[in-house]
Amino acid sequence: MLIVTNHEGGVGIGETAKALRDGRPALDAAEAGVRLVEVDPAIRSVGYNSWPNILGQVELDAAVMDGTTLRTGAVGGLVGYRNPVSVARAVMERLPHEILVGAGAARFAAEIAAERLDNLTPAAHATWQRVLNESLDERQRAAFPDIPLSELCQRATDPEYQKDTTVFLAIDGQGGMASAVSTSGWAWKYPGRLGDSPIIGAGSYADAAYGACACTHTGEMTIRAGTSRAVVLYLKMGLSLEDALFEAGRDLRRLKGGLIRGVALHAIDAQGNHRVASFGEAKGVDYWIWEHGMAAPERRVAMHLDV
Ligand code: ASP
After folding, report:
1. Is 3.60.20.30 the CATH number for 2-305?
2. What is the tens place of the pLDDT at every residue in 132-162?
3. Which of 51, 196, 224 to mutate to test the pocket of ligand 1 (most atoms within 8 A of CB)?
4. How confident is the model at residue 154, as a pLDDT?
5. Looking at ligand 1, which residue's alpha carbon is closest to its atom 9?
6. Tell me: the pLDDT tens digits for 10-66?
7. Pairing state of beta strands 99-101 and 71-78?
């Protein structure tokens, strides 16, 4: 049994470990962990109290993958629900589809009676309003929101107001493997922007035969490199976890433009090993791990790869 989650996953890893100890499947355990992160108001980049898009609307992305069946479910740009990860799981289990976005995702969430929640808190609204006011001139302020948004969205890479998806990778006592991820994406993003999290193969991927990977930070990069799928394919080709992450890091480095700084890759293999890697100037990235035999989850520092 094994769980790897990123810094934000600290509030959920205890519940995830308990689920695995109780003999529940990896997917149940990973989902249970993500659900706790989604409702924690202290985590500003996932679920409740996270940063909105440039129009002040909290659009959430989430995905799950069952590494045994290789089935996936994802939602993108979901507005108004408490646990996007569970809606993503329902997409996997109740539809012949893999991803729902926007109005269709919200319609489906209502149809399955998912719990509603206005994820925009007064505090997040006030920060958004202040950043917006600082970014607009008088004429734009008067016309907002009927103004071109693309220039404003350059602030979508504002490092002050974004930090991390939550990602969970788990192996259960029967050798089942799963991934589950959830995020509000980048603060002040263009409405409708999807990050890597709802895109299976980019933000996460799990195949119980080889391993699983999940990414945090600039989804624009890991979408372009298909990073999570690439890591699992590198494992399938026989590379060690460390070499697989190094290769995936080199793939990211080859991309022209964009930000590799801050991207962190979390990976496990079918033998129960794990590695978490950061790149560029992002040093001291930490994560949580729990494995069979540990009394409690441990917080560790990711390895740093110079690619
Ligand atoms: N990867 C996420 C996204 O691009 C954001 C993050 O993890 O910081 O939506």
Report:
1. yes
2. 988 888 998 999 999 999 888 876 556 666 6
3. 196
4. 75
5. 185
6. 999 999 999 999 999 999 999 999 999 999 999 999 999 999 999 999 999 999 999
7. parallel
Please report where in the chains the tokens 């991803």 appear, as a residue. Answer: 99
Could you tell me if 290 and 3 are in contact, meaning their C-beta atoms sit under 8 angstroms apart?
yes
Give the relative orientation of helices 84-94 and 102-111 as an angle to the nearest 10 degrees: 80
196 pocket-lining for ligand 1 (C-beta < 6 Å): yes
* pLDDT of 271: 97
| Closest CA to ligand 1's atom 4 | 219
Whole-structure pTM value: 0.96
Active site positions, annotated: 165
Low-confidence ranges of the chain (pLDDT < 70): 155-163
Please give the DSSP secondary-structure letter assigned to residue 61.
E
Instruction: Identify whether the C-beta of residue 66 lies closer than 8 Å to the C-beta of residue 206.
Output: yes
DSSP 152: G
Ligand 1 contacts CB of residue 16 (under 6 A): no
Contact 51, 124 (CB under 8 A): yes
Residue 133, judged by CB atoms within 10 A of its CB (0-12, 13-18, 19+), counts as exposed
99-117 burial string, b = 16+ CB within 10 Å, else e?
bbbbeebbebbeeeebeee
184 CB within 6 A, ligand 1: no
Position 159 scores a pLDDT of 61
DSSP 184: -
Which is nearest to 185 in space by CA: 249, 119, 247? 119
